[in-house]
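Pilot study result, target chain (314 residues):
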Amino acid sequence: MLLEYSTQTQEARHRFDYWHEVVCRHCIPADSRRTDGKEAAGDGFEARLTLRTLGPLELSTMSAPSHSWVRNASHLRTHARDDLWLGYLLHGRAEVRQCGRQARLKTGDLVLYDAARPFEFEVTPRDILLMRIPRAELVQRFAQAPAHAGLALGGQGPGVEPLRAMLGEAMALPESAQSEPLARRFGMLLLDVLALALEMQVPAHQPRARRDLHGRIQAYILNHLGSTELSLQTLAQQHHVSPRTVTRAFARHGQSPMGLVWQLRLEASRQALLDGRCTSVTEAAFVHGFSDAAHFSRAFRKAFGCTPRSLLAA
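Predicted structure:
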């Protein structure tokens, strides 16, 4: 399915408002403003958005003058979203700020960002590809993927060039290849390539045994996420290494083992609340390995900018 929008269908003075409405409807609800210096003059805002679906993925090709988007805690409460997004800068410059990181993009760079967390996204002309990714689809391929939010993928980094090539092919798919079965197969393959590119950002010189240990522990964490006995000591015992070895394996990836446990538990509990699989804050806490509902609520608010109870009321 292909959808196209252009601000040229609107009167010049209404074009940016129309653009804001279209992008919020099809992408992520957020605040927007022009940064091209022409807002006060009321000049027209010439922009276009093309959308297509590839199985579980949604691709949006955006061409627009300079403007910015800000998604804050208020948006997280009123317009909860759980998708991950990939931005691929086709031409121009952009800057993404999320999770305390600042990714400055030039033509050809990519960045992963998270709709479940606040972010700022500034785009300077002209073209960018945005890809909506269901969180579960990417996390089941690479559990650490959300931890890469706000980090740029650029240059000739490992796995980046094949990802660029596949994104280019996705934009140029002929109509005959956009039937549901073919589009879904292409989308699933694109997900595999993205997951591989993210995982390959691990330093290439790291010994294979250490990379494998990190992966095995991640898989163990995912399979035992609801266990209150999940601890650094447990992870070490189950993998026949010392706690210090486990800590070092995760430090090479810029994280801590229990930090990942908390992150995955919070993300899983949030999704359960959004899906209606948990009907109370206490249930969401205990099912996902938290032994204290009040502590869970504080950690949830810090991570997502809203309370778990607000999602129950949504």
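One observation from the pilot: The domain at 2-199 is CATH 2.60.120.10 (Jelly Rolls). A full batch analysis is planned for the follow-on phase.
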